[in-house]
Design brief:
This protein is mainly beta and about 1100 residues long. The N terminus is likely disordered. About 45% of the residues are buried. It is about 15% helix and about 35% strand. The chain starts with a helix and ends with a strand.
Length: about 1100
């Protein structure tokens, strides 16, 4: 009766937490209440917890302690399979002052009926199996199962197996497979794992061996012998048998053979493995599995056994050498372990089971010594199961949680999202028995996804707030020196040797019931992004960057700019034009879908190739465009973890040294650019991790990718990022999710989002519309823009719903292009490629928008195309909180005005200097001086670039190689009457005296030339012109403003704070740059280096700045801090 009551209580408990809300999930985790201690086991076995051990853990009454969890086998990735929720209890057998439980390690064994062998699977995330002990739940003592009757089969032997596997290296730094002993020297090795097998019988056994090798020509043979008799060999073919386009990416070819082990067998075995040839690479043993039949008797404290003969047959197992201390547990169902009732007759123990499936048993000798599990420690209460629905989950290591929470607050306040920050450990505890497993992340998201069917509000975003590494267990020598404390798990493919190996974050978004068995066809259900951060400093910097982008602190016309960069191919693809074609299709799609953008096309073959086979002008153009600001930069072509293209047009060094302020979204359809799970930081990660520059996010690649599939993904991504309907504009995570839902290939798995998936792509939501030209309303009839004619353009701003925005007051930037031209590339190595572009500029201006209306006037230059074809007028406007963009095409460029004004005087150079306005000819400057000239002309300055000899040029020392076209560096000043500014950072110069000539033309082709000299001094310290703190006095935080004479240069900035006795309290060191006329700003929260708030009083602050290893320029001042 007591047993029935006990079973009823346990049943109620299980029902209440497994099916409480009508789903498969507990409404509240068992871990939310009571004392819980985590323990772990290193291999599958029977483990002992003595009452003394339990008391040492803090349990006053060990008889009330139960064990929970299901150990270390990897979770099922296929969501159509059975799911175990939360931390169910596992039955225990109790002795007088101890308990025994069945613990599963990290190696899973199962019988494969197709090969008729027992096979193993290693948990790719952990080396241990974890459990919990608690006194907060009813005990779950093991029950007995009665014997069956009518056995027709007598079983006195059992099927057993042994494994030899040393996981030493990952030859590809990718995938789950790690390989063992090195056989490249062709020296035989004795495998001691199988040297003693007590109780082995002469029944046929099986031996399986897997081996890898990379062979340039011929073949290699791996052999295994037992007791000097060769049992099996594996022939591995040459790498030449692999398709040529992926051959270079194949690290080794595997071979697997299973052989029957016949004849008489000895308990003592000499197993030797040998390899036929030396000189091959990546020659390694993977594993050896040996399957054999043993006499059924105890072999120590616990002996696991099973019988293939028993499958489908009512069977009586007969165990010899047993005694009264011998018990039999049925562990087939690890959560329902039972003691099997058996008959002891002398030293023979027997029991009967009915016909059925293969069952797993264990002989337990209670009088022998059992291993004890390792105590991990007490577990904090946790209740992820009890959370309400969340829009966004951020997974963060504990030390990074503070920064993750800052980002969560920003999304709550600005976007109205419900956000939860959770630690990996909490997820493992509730979703994978405490054992690290990437599927636990997915299971957490699956819970929210499933509950939304009844509760609504499905999850939208998952942010992995931490870097990862291909070796999740940290078992290879290469990663053992790498700190993984702040890393999150990565999902690695089973394939580990070739181009089809991958790491993907998509896995965590496959939430449908049948997902997990075909990743190329599985559909993402949430947007996933990753911050590849390893330190608190990186976390702080990346959250700062992201929040700044969210708050749109960097508005400007740069948000109208998008750039497409295309490789010209290489020897492997015969210098195909495919990359240019693919990039151009994307560029033209933007032109058609969102004509308000200015599309820049940087196609390698359109530029001159140097004698060294490089493209220096491509590098310079990319640098110029990034400095001017791009909303998006999209690269199509070859690449690696450190650079773009074989010509290295943009490298990791360039990225790390970048100091431009406007942060683009990067799209890189190139191989390996963001191999985030490598030991070394990839170039793509450097883009994101640059504290103040680089990029805000990347749609990028983790492995080798294929051109055709890339093009499909890139096109779908651009379509999703630049939807025409701004009201349904996707976040970055949604854009990636919907892009991948359109595709059914494995190539997409190699693309990930680095950055915040909930971040909105920050291009203007308002529209700028031209309403009249020269007083005439816009109609179907195009206007004429004739050379030397004066044109007045009028327009208005519309809000996202299309209504007139009368409250919009701000600044307008306008750019007018001459007609579209057909450009043919040079054919440096490939076929020539022809594309359309707007190469020549008519006018660039800045004017005001007042109460939603704008108007500007300009004169059409003499140097136009006279094509009588349509040009393009581009508009960008910003107010304090709103931005607008627009375009206008209804004008024809051609003809000459009949009323042209007379102007024979060249532009007036009103100011010209290097670095700052105190410069005079002959002064000393640094090695990369910043050139500034203020210009005015009655008619306008010529920046068209359409006529040879009329470009704005700066020439150093009369050298053609140091002649710089400054057309694109010139812009009119806001609301000025034809006054503008040209700004240009001169590339590094040699020390010594130099002469510079600056020549500028107006639109009627009148010129002005100015010549000056300067001395380049290496290591020249900058001038810290002015420094102040605001607010001062300060109560909550303060900003230090540093005005200097090194605009656009890479600065090293240090700010230190002292009390009035000179005691050092706080310092920070930053690197970055600031624009002309703008200060470098450092923010401080008024706490010392230990995080303690400073008391009210007077303090000293000191700043030091330097550039390119120069001497420091310093200033000091006082700061008053008030009480909060």
């Amino acid at each position: 009766m007591r047993r029935l009551i006990y079973i009823f209580i346990i049943g109620l408990l299980l029902c209440s937490y497994t099916w409480a809300d009508g789903s498969r999930y507990a409404s509240k985790s068992l871990l939310s209440e009571g004392k819980w201690v985590k323990i772990r086991v290193d291999k599958t076995g029977i483990y002992k917890l003595s009452y003394a051990d339990l008391k040492n853990m803090g349990f006053s009454d060990p008889s009330k302690v139960s064990v929970h969890g299901y150990g270390g086998w990897p979770l099922d990735e296929d969501f159509s399979k059975e799911y175990i929720d939360d931390v169910p209890s596992t039955p225990v057998w109790r002795g007088s002052d101890y308990l025994l439980f069945y613990g599963k390690g990290s190696v899973k064994w199962e019988y494969d009926s197709s090969s008729q062998t027992f096979v193993h699977t290693n948990n790719p995330y952990c080396l241990y199996g974890y459990y919990f002990v608690t006194d907060a739940t009813p005990t779950n003592d093991m029950t007995s199962v009665a014997q069956a009757s009518g056995a027709s089969t007598r079983i006195t032997t059992y099927d057993d197996y042994l494994l030899h596997e040393q996981e030493l290296v990952s030859v590809n730094q990718s995938g789950r497979e790690f390989f063992g002993e090195d056989f490249s020297g062709a020296r035989p090795r004795t495998i001691s794992t199988f040297s003693s097998i007590p109780g082995i019988t002469d029944a046929d056994g099986k031996v399986t061996m897997r081996f890898i090798s990379r062979i340039n020509s011929g073949s290699g043979t791996a052999s295994l012998s037992i007791n000097d008799s060769e049992l099996l060999d594996i022939t591995i073919p040459s790498i030449q048998t692999v398709s040529s386009n992926v051959r270079s990416y194949t690290k080794a070819i595997p071979g697997t053979t299973t052989a029957l082990w016949k004849g008489s067998k000895s308990e003592k075995n000499n197993v030797v493995v040998s390899y036929s040839s030396s000189g091959h690479t990546n020659v390694r043993l993977d594993y050896i599995r040996m399957q054999f039949v043993r006499t059924l008797r105890p072999y120590g404290a616990c002996t696991f056994f099973r019988s293939l003969t028993s499958v489908g047959n009512a069977s009586r197992f007969v165990i010899s050498e047993a005694n009264s201390n011998t018990l039999v547990f049925d562990v087939t169902d690890a959560l329902n372990v039972k003691r099997v009732e058996a008959d002891l007759n002398g030293s023979e123990l027997s029991f009967t089971i009915p016909a059925g499936r293969l069952r797993e048993f264990v002989l337990v000798q209670t009088n022998q010594t059992f291993p004890s599990p390792e105590v991990v420690g007490e577990v904090a209460s946790s209740n992820l199961h009890g959370l309400e629905q969340r829009d966004m989950i951020i997974i963060s290591a504990p030390s990074l949680v503070q920064q993750a929470e800052r980002l969560a607050v920003a999304h709550r306040e600005k976007d109205g999202l419900t956000v939860e920050v959770v630690t990996p450990e909490a997820i493992y505890n509730e979703f994978s028995s405490g054992t690290p497993d990437a599927t636990a992340y997915r299971r957490l998201m699956k819970m929210f996804y499933d509950r939304s069917s009844s509760l609504g509000n499905p999850p939208k975003y998952l942010l992995l707030f931490g870097d990862g590494i291909y070796d999740n267990r940290g078992i290879s020598g290469e990663v053992q020196g790498v700190s993984r404390s702040n890393m999150l798990l990565t999902f690695q493919s089973q394939e580990s040797l070739n181009v089809y190996s991958y790491a993907t974050d998509d896995y965590f978004a496959f939430l449908e019931d049948n997902s997990g068995s075909n990743f190329s066809r599985d559909k993402m259900c949430v947007g996933v992004g990753r911050f590849p951060i390893r330190t608190v400093t990186e976390a702080t910097q990346m959250v700062d960057k992201t929040i700044s982008y969210m708050e749109n602190k960097d508005s400007g016309s740069w948000k109208n700019n998008v750039t497409f960069v295309a490789d010209d191919g290489n020897n492997e693809d015969s210098f195909t034009t495919n990359h240019m074609k693919q990039a151009d299709q994307l560029a033209e799609a933007i032109e058609e879908m969102q004509p308000g953008f200015l599309v820049n096309k940087v196609y390698f073959d359109a530029y001159k190739r140097s004698s060294l086979g490089t493209y220096p002008d491509v590098h310079n153009e990319i640098e110029k465009l990034l400095k001017s600001g791009q909303l998006l930069i999209n690269y199509t072509g070859h690449g690696s973890t450190t650079h773009w293209a074989d010509e290295s047009v943009w490298t990791q060094t360039d990225i790390n040294n970048s100091s431009y302020k406007h942060l683009p979204v990067w799209v890189t359809a190139t191989c390996d650019f963001t191999r985030f799970d490598d030991v070394k930081t990839s170039a793509g990660e450097s883009v994101f991790l640059n504290p103040t520059s680089g990029g805000i996010a990347l749609f990028t690649t983790t492995r080798v990718v294929f051109s055709g599939n890339n093009a499909n993904l890139n096109k779908a991504l651009i379509d999703n990022l630049f939807q025409e309907d701004a009201n349904s504009r996707y976040t970055l995570g949604e854009a990636m999710m919907y892009t991948k839902r359109q595709l059914n290939d494995s190539n997409k798995l190699n693309f990930i989002l680095i950055g915040d998936p909930a971040l909105k792509f920050a291009y203007p939501e308002y529209k700028a519309r031209v309403t009249a030209v020269n007083g005439e309303a816009v109609s179907d009839e195009p206007f004429e823009f004739k050379a030397l004619s004066r044109i007045t353009v009028e327009g208005e701003i519309l809000n996202p719903s299309g209504s007139f925005a009368a409250d919009f007051t701000g600044v307008l930037s306008s750019t007018i292009f001459d007609s579209q031209s057909s450009i043919t590339t040079l054919g440096n190595s490939s076929e020539k490629f022809t594309y359309l572009d707007y190469p020549n500029t008519i006018y660039i201006g800045r004017d005001s928008v007042r109460n939603g209306k704008f108007s500007f006037t300009f004169m059409v230059p003499k140097d136009i195309s006279y094509s009588n074809k349509k040009g393009k007028l581009n508009l960008y406007a910003s107010s304090e909180t709103k931005e607008a963009q627009g375009s206008f095409f209804d004008f024809i460029v051609g003809g000459t005005s009949d009323t042209a004004e007379t102007d024979t005087i060249g532009p007036e150079i009103r100011q010209i200097y290097l670095n700052d306005s105190s410069f005079v000819s002959g002064d000393k400057v640094n090695t990369t001086p910043y050139f500034v000239a203020k210009l005015w002309d009655k008619s306008g300055v010529n920046i068209t670039g359409s006529s040879v000899g009329h470009d704005m040029m700066l020439t150093i020392d009369s050298m053609p190689s140091m002649s710089y076209n400054l057309n694109s560096y010139y812009a009119l000043l806001p609301d000025s009457e034809n006054e503008g500014l040209v700004q240009f950072s001169i590339p590094e110069l040699e020390p010594g005296m130099h002469t510079a000539e600056f020549k500028v033309w107006d639109i009627l082709n009148n010129s002005t030339t100015y010549t000056f000299t300067f001395e380049v001094a290496e290591g020249l310290k900058p001038n810290l012109i002015e420094m102040y703190a605001t607010p001062n006095p300060a109560r909550d935080q303060v900003e230090f403003f540093l005005h200097h004479n090194r605009p656009e240069s890479n600065l090293k900035v240090t700010v230190m704070v002292y009390d009035m006795t000179g005691k050092f309290l706080w310092s920070t060191e930053k690197s970055g740059s600031s624009e002309l006329f703008k200060a470098y700003i450092v923010t401080w929260n008024l706490t010392d280096n230990g995080g303690r708030r400073l008391r009210p009083g007077v303090y000293l602050y000191r700043a030091a700045i330097s550039t390119n290893n120069s001497k420091e320029a310093t200033k000091a001042n006082k700061l008053i801090i008030l009480a909060q």
